[in-house]
Design a protein that fits this description.
The chain has 107 residues and is mainly alpha-helical. It has a single domain (22-100), classed as 434 Repressor (Amino-terminal Domain). Helix content is 42%, strand content 4%. It contains five helices and two strands, in the order ββααααα. It has helices at residues 23-33, 38-45, 49-57, 65-75, 79-84; strands spanning 14-15, 18-19. It has a two-stranded antiparallel ribbon with strand order 1-2. A hairpin with a 2-residue loop joins β1 (14-15) and β2 (18-19). It is globular and about 35 Å long.
Length: 107
């Protein structure tokens, strides 16, 4: 029998009680901070609401480069931040350069 709740069955992976923020978490946080629903964000990026939901819950990790660039543009962020976050470094040890800053109204 198919259990439709399997993707939500397990706890979020954490280490020593610390939740490691994922790219999906950062997409969701930035999307919500910008005031977009999943559907509105998907329309701006050119994907379905379902695709946005899958990115955010981690069930889909493959994003086409063109779509990824559009996500960066719509969320006003850069790839280092979205991939690695504030406290992580990139593959060559370089720190993330841009932290999350909500966009000021009128800018």
């Amino acid at each position: 029998m198919l259990n439709l709740r399997v993707k939500d069955a397990g706890p979020v992976v954490s280490y020593a009680g610390f939740h490691m923020e994922t790219m999906g978490d950062r997409i969701k946080r930035l999307r919500v901070a910008r005031g977009y629903t999943q559907e509105a964000f998907g329309q701006l990026v050119g994907v379905t609401k379902s695709a946005v939901s899958q990115w955010e819950d981690g069930s889909s990790k493959n994003v086409k480069l063109e779509t990824f660039v559009r996500v960066l543009e719509v969320l006003h962020t850069d790839a280092n931040y979205l991939i690695w976050g504030d406290s992580r470094t990139g593959p060559n040890g370089e720190p993330s350069r841009k932290s999350f800053r909500p966009r000021q109204s009128g800018t």
